[in-house]
Amino acid sequence: MAEAAVGFVVRKLGELLAQEAINLYGVRGEVEWLKRELGRMQCFLKDADAKKKKGDDERVKHWVTEMRDLAFDAEDAIDTFMYSKLRRPERDGCIAFIERFVFIFDELVSRHKVHVDVKGIKAKLHELSESRDVYGISNIGETIGTTSQSRSQNVIPILPQLSDDIDMVGFDDEKKKIVHELVDINNANRSVISMVGMGGLGKTTLAKSVYNDFEVKRSFDIFAWVIISQEYTIHEVLKRIKSEVSATPLADTIQDLSVAISEKLKKGKYLIVLDDVWKEDAWTELLKVFPDVNNGSRVIITTRFLNVAKIADPTIQPHELRLLNIKESKELFLRKVFPRQNTETCCSDDLLDSAHQLVKRCGGLPLALVVLGGLVSTKPQTKDAWQKVVESMKRQFVKGGDKCLEILALSYNDLPHYLKSCFLYFGCFGEDMNIPSKTVIRLWSAEGFLPTENGKTIEESGFDCLVELAQRCLIQVTEHEYDDGVKYCQIHDLLRDMCISEAKDNRFLEIYQNDTVDRATMPNAARRLIIFNEIKTLNYSNSKLRGLFYSLGSYQRLDFAALNGQLGKFKLLRVLYVNKLVISEFPSEIK
Predict the structure, then answer these.
(1) Which CATH fold would you assign to the domain 417-495?
(2) C or N: which end of the chain has fewer Cβ atoms within 10 Å?
(3) Can you name the residues that pair with 551 across neighbouring β-strands?
């Protein structure tokens, strides 16, 4: 992430030099120096980041952290100066004359501050440069098969097909059993069918394939798919079910919602999927909503926990999903590397040995195979390119470590530096949220993450980033536009967990879930603050904040009084994001 932070600042300074020659009068030399020196140090950060991940030396970890913070300091210094320039008054008259005089004085102060800040950054950069050799950090450029620039020119981007059967390998027999249990006319009782397995094993993929099966679709009258997840509220879940089955409650209370849903479900044979159930309480709270009128209705549960499956329906044996064998693993991997091609013939003989080594390291876990296949799909189809990925895995993997997490981290580290920031941004959204592509592209644009090159618009550049993340299987396309573009996307919860962990470690974001956000309780000055629950008070005066996110998830009323008048203190704020909130009036600080 340090490489991404420095790369972002270098690109930002370059754009500033190209577009703001007049406004940079007096500090242009400092900006040019920062761009040149940070660009030089960026070359060493890939090696340093790799050493940090492996945990070779605490001193290297400290060096990387210092380098990242220095890049943030450089960005803050220039952005603060530009903020003071943008405040220049445009009015005429006597008052305007006085305002301009005050502004000129402020500008001199701002310019002096930039000089002082850059002087401090120069001293720190010199110190870091000297310690680099001591720590054995070298300029490794584009080694180990990773990319710090854009995708290989030999690779044509292909948006993944929107089909659950594309990713379903090894579960055909299990699917047949589940479909039979669903449509069995000899069992008129309402039954609960559970799929159990660790994260990334393919429970949701199998459930979707069953849910969309033709025989299943013609056997039921009412359908609903609801994601439960770890941080659920019964009220929110009931509202989702109500929407799916088109129930009409008298009011928005839990009692009225429960009654309306139950009455609606009594009118037909229903199939309800509760995806990603973590707690027994989730089922016991919902049990009364699903009536048993002896018409063969069914509920499907996916969960990581066997106790949840057993309490849901003790009379039916849960389906415990297994890991894939080598043959199945190879097929799934090659489907991702060579989309829309025959997996029996697509891989040349000279690539088979490398493919076998890569597949073996995934341990039969579908998510690891899919993500690794997405990574390899961006590489040239040569033995050398694939073998570099193998060697990279050998270097990164730690004995006894979590292979899945290490593969996910490997795929993240392989991203171009601008895509790393784009990917980490998915940590700003709630778990299992269906994210509109236009929303995430606009947020990326507001933050300045998107590269502008080859005559493309910002929107086109943002779409390219989404497509590449989807091809690499780091995000999932959940709905296409009419022209086959990305309409909605989602991120797997394991990938989101890794995303948030990496983002927190690198001050990219901080998530808060208490009723009071207090600056004293925050571990560091994060660039973005994410609030997932209603807060009473915001005592957070981080003047370097770039993004403030409110995402409560249940159309609550947002009272800006909770901000305690601090919104105006976030002088460098680029994004104020509110989702599913009722706002009666914007605060006066927003012009």
Answers:
(1) Arc Repressor Mutant, subunit A (1.10.10)
(2) C
(3) 579
